[in-house]
Amino acid sequence: MKADLKKVNKYTAFLKIPYIRIQRKEMIMSDTIHNVVIVGSGPAGLTAAIYASRASLNPVIITGRNQGGQLNTTPEIGNWPGAFQNPSGFELMDSMTKHAKNLNVEFISDEVVSSDLEGEIKTLELSSGRKVKARTVIIATGANARYLGLASEEQYKGKGVSACATCDGFFYRGKEVAVVGGGSAAFIEAIFLGNLARKVYLVHRRSEFRAEKIVIDRFNKLVDEGKAEYVLDAKVTEIKGDGSVVTGVELDIQGEKRTLDLQGVFVAIGHNPATAAFAGLKRDEVGYIETGFERETQTSIPGVFAAGDCADPVYRQAITSAGQGCKAALDAQHFLGL
Ligand code: FAD
Ligand code: NAP
Fold first, then answer.
1. Which atom of ligand 1 is nearest the CA belonging to 307?
2. Is the confidence at residue 26, as pLDDT, over 80?
3. pLDDT at residue 18, as a whole number
4. Catalytic residue among 4, 164, 233, 252
């Protein structure tokens, strides 16, 4: 609360507004108890917001830093039912956001840093210091990109190392790049880059893939055209650079050392659940929130529900996340008895 007041003081001094009025407004905002607060604005959070709003629960959504979630970074969605024109991830999420806004869902552009979820009234603390209170909370915080964990990778992040081809691919027009990973995300990134870069290497630690066949087939076309190449059974041991930018990757291929000279490395090795702010909940060893207590989306604390990638180590799809968001809103409504 102290940090809040400090900010308010600075603000009032700048605007020359009587301090006492702002302080009172802050107090009123903190004292509002919402029926439902949804944390996260990906497919799970936005679907929960749409359902909760249509049930007249007046939901509030705390967007987090990435409004729209993981799909924002993908150039096309080929499996959202009905969207046969393969919209970009951003287009799909923008349309979902507009749908929620159209239903008067209140959006707060901030992130939750800690939570007190026990008891009838739950409190979420935001990075601004603001506290938001609610009778029910739906956690839909999804997941964050995983990195290889090499010191050299850390050194060259933003200087040739990236986890988002849609965001950074443009800089690699006509250059050589590697994508690390063997899941659908790695293949989608590699296909996108294959149409921009001079050559793309798909570097994977095994020779079998988790990716869907349809994306593997599309990548194979680039291989046939000479625009792409597989480097399999390969472990990245170092990102090489000249001190300012990436110049290559060093690989261990079944005990043999190989260096690829290139300018960009795109890491697409999956995601970790973004659940650190909810330490009071039961989570598995990786950090996924455990659900299924009394209702399908209920967590270990009554009144707190979880949906989407933050609670799902298995399916991790936009459509399953949205489905769980729907269930969480219905479970919250049931809990409130409204
Ligand atoms: P996310 O989309 O991860 O959204 C999480 C939200 O929580 C974000 O808004 C974030 O800002 C917010 N947040 C996080 N922490 C906090 C916090 N502390 N406080 C407040 N807010 C917070 N799936 C498909 O079905 N089809 C595809 O074609 C497809 N393509 C993909 C391509 C790529 C490159 C990737 C990485 C994934 C792809 N997926 C695809 C998977 C899909 O993106 C996820 O399954 C889906 O986005 C999960 O939705 P979610 O709402 O659970 O979480
Ligand atoms: P994923 O399916 O979990 O694949 C991660 C890949 O990274 C695996 O190949 C894994 O190798 C590899 N990997 C993990 N840790 C590694 C490490 N430390 N070093 C090297 N390699 C490592 O993750 P994803 O591709 O991000 O997909 C996530 C979810 O989103 C999936 O459910 C997927 O279906 C969905 N998705 C769907 C689409 C679509 O178009 N339908 C597109 C993208 C994503 P191993 O195989 O050896 O474990």
1. 52
2. no
3. 37
4. 164
Residue 187, amino acid: F
Sheet holding 234-241, edge to edge: 234-241, 246-253, 256-261
Q: Is the CB of 70 under 6 A from ligand 1?
A: yes
Question: Coil, strand or helix: which one is 255?
Answer: coil
Catalytic: which of 116, 167, 217, 284? Answer: 167
Task: Look at residues 89, 94, 88 and name the one whose alpha carbon lies nearest to residue 63.
Answer: 94
Contacts of 219 (CB under 8 A, 6+ apart): 187, 190, 191, 194, 202, 228
Q: What percent of the chain has pLDDT over 70?
A: 91
Q: How far apart are CA 36 and CA 285, in angstroms?
A: 28
Is residue 246 within 8 A of residue 156, CB to CB? The reply is: yes
How is residue 290 annotated by DSSP?
A: P
Work out the angle between the directed axes of helices 43-54 and 89-102 (0-180°, nearest 10): 20
Q: List, in sequence order, every residue forming a beta bridge with 246; answer none if it has no partner.
A: 241
Ligand 2 lined by 181 (C-beta under 6 Å): yes
pTM of the model: 0.84
Q: Is the CB of 111 under 6 A from ligand 1?
A: yes
The residue nearest atom 23 of ligand 2, judged by CA position, is 270
Between the alpha carbon of residue 146 and those of residues 143, 149, 288, the distances in Å are 9, 9, 14
In whole angstroms, give the CA distance from residue 243 to residue 156. 8
Element (H, E) at 221: helix 213-224
DSSP string covering 122-154, please? EEEEETTS-EEEEEEEEE---EEE-----HHHH
Mean pLDDT confidence for 185-193:
95
φ, ψ (nearest 5 deg) of residue 80: -90, 115
Q: Encode burial over 141-170: b for 16+ CB neighbours within 10 A, e otherwise.
A: bbbbbeebebebbeebeeebbbbbbbebbe
Distance (Å) of CA 214 to CA 6, 18, 320 = 55, 62, 19
* Best probe residue, ligand 1, of 46, 141, 271 (max atoms within 8 Å of C-beta): 141
